Amino acid sequence: MAEASYPPAKHGGGNGAAAAFPARKPPPGYGSARPTYRAPPRKRRRRCGLGRCCCWLTLFLLALILLAAIAGGAFYLIFRPRQPAFSVSSLSFANLNSSLSLAMAAKNTNKKLAFDFDSISVSAFDREEKIGDGEFPPFFQQSGNTTVLKTTVASLRSDLRKKSGVEVEIRLETKAGIAIGGAKTKRVRIRVNCPAVAVAKSRQSSPPHSSCKVELRIKIWKWYF
Fold first, then answer.
1. Which domain holds residue 135?
2. How far apart are CA 147 and CA 56, in angstroms?
3. Pairing between strand 146-155 and 213-217?
4. What does the mean pLDDT of the chain come to?
5. Does 63 map to a domain?
6. 185 located within any domain
7. How far, in Å, CA of 9 to CA of 21, rounded?
8. Which phi and psi (to 5°) does residue 24 adopt?
């Protein structure tokens, strides 16, 4: 019986698979050079930096205010500062030229603080009309002391010679600092207003220590308070 002959089998499963499943075509542009990626430029944070500076500056100022308040409170509790007191001791016409002889008392009621006064300018008024000017010399006043100040107010008005008497109001302007041991504070402005006193030419007028109103004028930047 004759054997049947078959053609030789072709090897290469890859070709067979390629014949069964044809290869896909690559998409257009495949294998070409891709464009280089560049990150977008970062924006400078100017506003953020400015805001931080303002924030730190605000915190610094608040800290200074807090420290000043603490120091001021401690100073007040320890020393109990009181402003100086002024009073008119005597006031009279010095001569026929209508000059006024003025004596005042300055009292320091503090127990631990001394005052260092500049020269004190004196102005006398008769119902808001100025009579004349005078001056007290500068002086240093220890705690608990009373200093007597004397001056002559030269009259600038000739019509006072015809009057038998006037109502004189005394106003003072000066600067004073506080002395603690060997340390001294910055001087502040002081304004003193004394109530009107009736002064007659025929006799001396000595009011019983007429008390005056004292105002401290503290300067902040360009303004006084």
1. 85-215
2. 50
3. unpaired
4. 78
5. no
6. yes
7. 20
8. -80, 145
Neighbours of 121 (CB within 10 A): 13
55-94: per-residue pLDDT in tens? Answer: 888 888 999 999 888 887 887 788 788 999 999 998 887 7
Q: Which residues contact 143 (CB under 8 A, 6 or more apart)?
A: 108, 110, 111, 112, 113, 114
Burial class (CB in 10 A: 0-12, 13-18, 19+), 102: buried
**Residue 155 within a domain:** yes
CATH code, domain with 197: 2.60.40
The H or E element spanning position 174 is strand 165-180
Spatial separation of the C-alpha atoms in residues 114 and 82, rounded to whole Å: 10
Q: Among candidates 197, 171, 177, which has minimal Cα distance to 189?
A: 177
Q: How many residues does the chain have?
A: 225
Of the pLDDT bands very low, low, confident and very high (cuts 50, 70, 90), residue 213 is very high
pLDDT interval class at 119 (50, 70, 90) = very high
Lowest mean pLDDT among 8-12, 64-68, 155-159, 207-211: 8-12
In a domain, 104, yes or no: yes
Domain count, the chain: 1
Instruction: Compute the distance between CA of residue 193 and CA of residue 215 in angstroms, rounded to an integer.
Output: 8
CA dihedral of residues 111, 116, 118, 119 (deg, nearest 10): 60
Q: Are 132 and 154 in contact (CB under 8 A)?
A: yes
| Residue 142 structure tokens | 């220890």
